[in-house]
């Protein structure tokens, strides 16, 4: 029988363990929670069919729901990565507005739609990278750093646009065609949203980057001991969030044919709420892209039902607030019980 060296054994036990796979991180927030979210969507659909049967089930209404979900949905994908990684990003709505304004300036539009798209993506990614640098290497609290970016980006967008709405010029109609051109009855922007979700799912669940995101969010010190450059990875997470904001800016330019400093107002709250409802822990280390998108669809469907039934916006906000509180309470209960 091989004897255990009493001196070396403790050191072996102290070696950093390989971070668990994303699937093992999910615990009770996986398929069971997804089924619960799907059931909530079905319940909301039944409410819509009962209260407004003549309007809710129409193809135009369903397309409008998906188009509305597309803009916030792309931002939600980036937010999911950031929160799983143990952070928070309050600047996403303002960064999207800044990207839309920058891309619709006359100087940018004169180079055509391709340059507009590249500009929006680069501006969003750049703003996210600044957030990541301040948080990772400047050691600022994510709440403070992204709050500062929210204020600064919104102010810069107002200054660039002179607080005026900038129209997409007719010769850049390729941007608008993302909203007007339909394939199988759906606008192209919905397919852009679906592509972002698919890529996000693959990156989070099938790549080293995704595994490191779970590890950094679950236990940063253990991730560091396992050889992960935590600061660099955190910076990349915020850059990814900014990239999603740039893509969302292109989508909102297509939907509204404008760039405006008022775009994305309170989008950060909708994105964070969707991620929470989808089961992602605010403390990081656990969550799914699918759950976040289901949470987003629940929120979008609630908004649609309120509009169809002519209810006040204030009542809608109250309902959303109550849903967030209930979701957080259920999440905390699940963590305590280990489900």
Describe this structure in words.
By secondary structure, the protein is an all-alpha fold. It has one domain (28-337): Orthogonal Bundle (ABC transporter involved in vitamin B12 uptake, BtuC), CATH 1.10.3470. The chain is built from 17 helices and 4 strands. The protein has a two-stranded antiparallel sheet. Strands 2-3 form a two-stranded antiparallel sheet. Helix 5 packs parallel to helix 11, helix 6 (92-103) packs across helix 14 and helix 15 (267-277) packs across helix 16. It starts with 7 loop residues before the first helix and ends with a helix. The relative contact order is 0.19. Mean pLDDT is 85; it is low at 1-29.
Ordered list of secondary-structure elements with their pairings:
Blueprint: H1 8-14, H2 22-25, H3 31-51, H4 53-56, H5 59-84, H6 92-103, H7 106-109, H8 113-136, H9 142-161, E1 166-167, H10 173-180, E2 182-183, E3 186-187, H11 188-206, H12 208-218, H13 220-225, H14 230-256, E4 258-259, H15 267-277, H16 289-308, H17 313-337
Antiparallel strand pairs: 1-4, 2-3
Helix pairs in contact: 3-16, 5-11, 5-12, 5-14, 5-15, 5-16, 6-8, 6-9, 6-14, 8-9, 8-14, 10-14, 11-12, 12-14, 15-16, 16-17
């Amino acid at each position: 029988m091989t004897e255990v060296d009493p001196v070396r054994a403790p050191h072996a036990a102290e070696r950093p363990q390989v971070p668990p796979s994303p699937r093992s991180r999910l615990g009770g927030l996986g398929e069971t929670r997804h089924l619960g979210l799907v059931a909530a969507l079905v319940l909301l659909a039944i409410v819509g069919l009962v209260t407004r049967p003549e309007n809710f089930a129409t193809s135009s209404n369903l397309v409008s729901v998906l188009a509305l979900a597309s803009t916030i949905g792309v931002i939600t994908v980036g937010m999911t990565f950031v929160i799983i990684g143990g952070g928070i990003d309050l600047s996403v709505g303002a960064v999207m507005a800044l990207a839309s304004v920058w891309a619709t300036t006359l100087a940018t539009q004169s180079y055509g739609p391709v340059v507009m798209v590249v500009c929006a993506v680069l501006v969003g990614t750049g703003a996210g990278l600044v957030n990541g640098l301040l948080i990772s290497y400047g050691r600022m609290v994510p709440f403070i750093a992204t709050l500062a970016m929210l204020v600064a980006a919104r102010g810069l967008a107002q200054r660039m646009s002179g607080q005026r709405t900038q129209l997409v010029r007719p010769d850049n109609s390729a941007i608008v065609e993302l909203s007007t051109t339909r394939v199988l009855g759906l606008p192209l922007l919905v397919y852009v949203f679906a592509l972002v979700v698919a890529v996000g799912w693959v990156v989070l669940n099938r790549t080293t980057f995704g595994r490191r995101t779970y590890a950094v969010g679950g236990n940063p010190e253990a991730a560091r001991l396992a050889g992960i450059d935590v600061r660099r990875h955190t910076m990349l997470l915020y850059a990814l969030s900014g990239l999603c904001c740039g893509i969302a800016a292109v989508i909102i330019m297509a939907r509204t044919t404008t760039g405006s400093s008022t775009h994305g107002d309170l989008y950060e709250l909708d994105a964070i709420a969707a991620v929470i409802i989808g089961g992602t822990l605010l403390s990081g280390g656990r969550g799914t892209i699918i759950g976040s998108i289901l949470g987003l669809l629940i929120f979008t469907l609630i908004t649609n039902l309120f509009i169809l039934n002519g209810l006040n916006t204030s009542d809608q906000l109250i309902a959303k607030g109550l849903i967030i509180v209930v979701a957080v309470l259920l999440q905390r209960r699940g963590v305590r019980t280990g489900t």
